[in-house]
């Protein structure tokens, strides 16, 4: 009777159906055909057809006993990246889930890799996990990497080293993190082979030689253990443990000990059926060989964070040699070997759709298996720890600096948060950012894998509006701190100016007063500690400057300022501030770095247009700005913008009023302006030869509607000929 050789794909289907009898074979075949067509003509470095690779990856996934969706995605995992096949095509033919898995694997493959320091590597591993909506993406990526490592010999040496380095820093620890110890060990051994070929060759030789020498001894220990178990009526499988070369190598390096010292330890594993039997067998082993003190570890009661469970003990075996035992149930063993993947084989129904469900179901199931342990604090804590880690990934993004450094930030973080994560000064001067080479708004929400280049300017300073969208407490704290310092500085300066003015009016010398102790005395009288604070109080408007003067001149009464003209009021006002950038929104995005142009100075209500300048971001001009022609603009740099609908605050506008030059006209016009709830921050009168006067004002108004209303009110004033808004800002004095 001859057994027909199965084709590789039929073998795969048979394997899958051996653990999942209902598996849809036609779907697997379809994926195979699709992949074969897509990769047709492509050859791997080994000379094999490319198809061998996805087939091998699917084989590893089948070995992990994953579901059909994952296996199909494994067959297709390189089609979108390396062939003409598209995401849409996959979705149409194989469904959303498969398409999404392939997309996830493709994305992880695109993350730039540079050699990382320890913390970086940990961030990176977390990032890989966080980017995978579905833990199966990570399984496929690991299977992909494992097969590439297994066939690494065909690449040139530099490439080998680079891939092995990435594997040892990222993927082996990732496999470990997911509790997939066999994969971790195989990856590590392969890495050692390429990263340190001499050490690998030496170890391989010595281990083989040693195993030969020790074969008899190990067999005798196993025989005694088996016999003891049988006599006690306990079932259990007793085995020697497979060798992990990298582990031996690491131990030698880290502890600075010889091969013999590491390797002399005989390692035996006993796999039994129940947890109770684990403890019973432990007692039995301890009864025939004395335990070495301090070497017993109960990872059943207290599992490791990757859910590893086992009892570990070292005993003085035959001839007084150290023998290490690991005792665990078959289920614990499966978890020790397959970790998270161990759970997947039970999920064949595909009933779980929610992505969180997918990530957590294994944990929940695990908790269910161990309900009887739920009162064990430590156990629960370790499970929580894992839940916490996994859960956090949904709330965390990992973004890169242009140098490849990873920053971990809460989800919803913006380029400003990123800038502050680099350095406070970088945050303070953050003007904009490029994400993956494209300019984005400061409110842009970063995604994992983004490379962020902060654009900064010495002139930029933190903005109060930033507090509304930054996400990290660090950024918030730094911005608030800066704003507070700034407020104090401004308060101090304004207070000083107010006092100086008040001193002048009373013919007091500011220079002398600020130097003397007089102000310190006044400060004390107001219950303030320092002169600086006194000045700030004046600046904040909590203490009228007049009152300070009164304390300095107790005998005299200050006379009311007889020439409190409008122009003097102006002195107290800071320069009209440029419109806040948040007042304007760019169509199709949030706010970007922008400034209101000084040539036409539009206000809310004006029709506006954005122009992307080189280096200064977006400038906002009025559509009627006379400078458009002079700008010599490039059409592709024009951006449609519009005002936000709920702009707070006022904006400075220049108006010009022509009136008969008669007494009282300034007062009347001023009062008309005030009656419209507009502030005058500057006034200037020019008398013309024709007997008319030109009154130039700078007023703070809300928008064009407000402005029109005010201009009409002014024109109704007796003696006024015209009231118009003046364009242009600079050089207007
Ligand atoms: Mn691949």
Mean of pLDDT: 79
| SS content category | alpha+beta
Low-pLDDT ranges: 344-392, 556-581
Shape: elongated
Small-molecule binders here are:
manganese (II) ion
Number of strands: 20
Question: Helical stretch count?
Answer: 30
Distance between the termini: 107 Å
Strand numbers in spatial order across the main sheet: 1-2-5-4-3
Helix amount, in percent?
40-55%
Give a short account of the largest sheet. Answer: 5 strands, mixed
The whole-angstrom Rg is 38 Å
Description:
The model is unreliable at 344-392 and 556-581 (pLDDT under 50). The chain is of the alpha+beta class and 733 residues long. It contains 30 helices and 20 strands. The protein has a five-stranded mixed β-sheet with strand order 1-2-5-4-3. It has a four-stranded mixed β-sheet with strand order 12-14-13-15, with no helix packed on it. Manganese (II) ion (MN) binds at residues 53, 77-78, 144. Manganese (II) ion binds next to loops.
How would you briefly describe this protein structure?
The chain is of the alpha+beta class.
């Amino acid at each position: 009777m001859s057994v027909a050789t199965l084709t590789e794909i039929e073998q795969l289907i048979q394997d899958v159906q051996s653990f999942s009898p209902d598996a849809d074979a036609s779907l697997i075949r379809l994926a195979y055909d699709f992949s074969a067509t897509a990769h047709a003509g492509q050859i791997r470095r080994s000379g094999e057809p490319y198809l061998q690779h996805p087939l091998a990856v699917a084989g590893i996934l089948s070995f992990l006993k994953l579901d059909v969706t994952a296996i199909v995605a494994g067959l297709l995992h390189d089609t979108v990246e390396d062939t003409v096949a598209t995401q849409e095509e996959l979705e149409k033919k194989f469904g959303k889930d498969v398409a999404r898995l392939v997309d996830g694997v493709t994305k992880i493959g695109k993350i730039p890799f540079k050699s990382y320091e320890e913390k970086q590597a940990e961030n990176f591993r977390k990032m890989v996990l966080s980017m995978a909506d579905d833990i199966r993406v990570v399984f496929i990526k690991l299977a992909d990497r494992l097969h590439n490592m297994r066939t690494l010999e065909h690449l040139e040496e530099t490439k080998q080293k680079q891939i092995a380095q990435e594997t040892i820093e990222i993927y082996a620890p990732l496999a470990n993190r997911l509790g997939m110890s066999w994969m971790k060990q195989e990856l590590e051994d392969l890495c050692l082979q390429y990263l340190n070929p001499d050490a690998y060759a030496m170890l391989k030789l010595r281990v083989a030689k040693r195993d030969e020498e020790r074969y008899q001894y190990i067999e005798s220990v196993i025989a005694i253990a088996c016999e003891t178990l049988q006599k006690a009526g306990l079932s259990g499988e007793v085995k020697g443990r497979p060798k992990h070369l990298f582990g031996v190598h690491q131990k030698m390096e880290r502890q600075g000990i010889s091969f013999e010292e590491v390797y002399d330890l005989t390692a035996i594993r006993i796999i039994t059926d129940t947890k109770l039997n684990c403890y019973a067998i432990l007692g039995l082993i301890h009864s025939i060989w004395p335990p070495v003190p301090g070497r017993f570890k109960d990872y059943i009661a207290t599992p490791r964070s990757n859910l590893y469970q086992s009892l570990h003990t070292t005993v003085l075996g035959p001839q007084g040699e150290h023998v290490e035992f690991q005792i665990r149930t078959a289920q614990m063993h499966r978890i020790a070997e397959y970790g998270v993947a161990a759970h997947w084989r039970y999920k064949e129904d595909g009933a779980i759709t929610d992505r969180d469900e997918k990530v957590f179901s294994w944990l929940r199931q695990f908790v269910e298996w161990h309900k009887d342990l739920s009162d064990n604090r430590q156990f629960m804590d370790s499970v929580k720890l894992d839940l916490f880690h996994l859960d956090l990934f949904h709330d965390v993004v990992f973004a890169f600096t242009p140098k490849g450094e990873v920053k971990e930030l809460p989800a919803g973080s913006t380029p400003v948060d990123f800038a502050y994560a680099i350095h406070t000064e970088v945050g303070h001067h953050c003007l904009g950012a490029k994400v993956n080479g494209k300019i984005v708004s400061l409110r842009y929400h970063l995604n994992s894998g983004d490379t962020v280049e902060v654009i900064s300017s010495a002139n930029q300073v933190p903005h109060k509006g930033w507090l509304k969208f930054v996400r990290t407490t660090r950024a918030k704290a730094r911005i608030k701190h800066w704003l507070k310092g700034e407020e104090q500085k401004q308060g101090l300066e304004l207070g000083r100016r107010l006092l100086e003015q008040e001193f002048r009016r009373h013919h007091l010398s500011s220079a002398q007063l600020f130097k003397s102790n007089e102000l310190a005395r006044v400060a004390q009288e107001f219950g303030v500690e320092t002169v600086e604070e006194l000045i700030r109080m004046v600046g904040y408007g909590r203490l009228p400057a007049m009152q300070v003067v009164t304390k300095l001149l107790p005998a005299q009464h200050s006379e009311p300022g007889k020439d409190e003209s409008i122009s003097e009021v102006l002195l107290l006002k800071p320069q009209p501030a440029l419109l806040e950038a948040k007042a304007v929104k760019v169509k199709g995005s949030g706010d970007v770095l922008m400034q209101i142009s000084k040539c036409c100075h539009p206000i809310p209500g004006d029709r506006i247009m954005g122009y992307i300048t080189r280096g200064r971001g977006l400038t906002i001009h009025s559509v009627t700005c006379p400078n458009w022609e002079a700008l010599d603009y490039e059409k592709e740099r024009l951006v449609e913008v519009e005002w936000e609908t709920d702009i707070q605050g006022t904006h400075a506008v220049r108006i010009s009023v022509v009136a008969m030059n008669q007494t009282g006209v300034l007062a009347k016009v001023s009062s008309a302006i005030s009656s419209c709830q507009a502030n005058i921050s500057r006034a200037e009168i020019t008398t013309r030869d024709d007997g008319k006067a030109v009154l130039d004002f700078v007023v703070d108004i809300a928008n064009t509607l407000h402005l029109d209303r005010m201009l009409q009110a002014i024109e109704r004033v007796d003696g006024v000929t015209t009231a118009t808004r003046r364009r242009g800002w600079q050089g207007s004095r």
